[in-house]
Design brief:
Elements lengths: L6 H26 L8 H10 L1 H19 L3 E6 L4 E10 L9 E13 L2 E10 L7 E9 L5
Antiparallel strand pairs: 1-2, 2-3, 3-4, 4-5
């Protein structure tokens, strides 16, 4: 199943497991967490105070589920040359604040290996929901230490 010697199979299997485990942890968290869906904020706080450990465990499970799901963003990539690769992915994140839209973004990344240990990766993203910025861009510089 998870053979470390076959990197391609390992990555695909791990991604598939993450796509199952992340939402499963979020489902368990929603069952464990006490309901705080109330217009009266005082009642919400009382509910949290009355069920502190359940609320804490639910929050931890939501966090773990989100982190696992982040590892499973759906995308495609292509190696154009030995030094240039491109990736296009659809990235979803749960809203941090209740009642807000979840973030859904289309992200494009180009990776240029400038040297054996130096990679530059400019990226551009377009927000697809109101929970995402309309557009964004950035650059990542990666320096690998040691013998790579």
């Amino acid at each position: 199943m998870l053979r470390f010697s076959d990197a391609r199979n390992f990555g695909r299997t791990l991604t598939g497991l993450a796509l199952i485990a992340g939402p499963l942890l979020m489902l368990v968290a929603s069952i464990v967490t006490p309901s705080t869906d109330n217009d009266n904020k005082l009642k919400e706080l009382n509910s949290v105070a009355a069920h502190k450990s359940a609320y804490l465990w639910g929050s931890v499970l939501f966090l773990l589920g989100t982190l696992i799901l982040l590892a499973a963003s759906v995308g495609i990539g292509r190696q154009f040359t030995s030094d240039i690769a491109g990736t296009l992915l659809l990235d979803w994140r749960r809203a941090i604040v209740a009642g807000r839209d979840d973030a859904l973004e289309l992200v494009g990344i180009v990776q240029w290996r400038l040297a054996r240990t130096l990679t530059v990766s400019p990226y551009l993203f377009v927000g697809l929901t109101d929970g995402s910025p309309d557009v964004g861009l950035g650059i990542e510089v990666s320096w690998k230490f040691g013998r790579y």
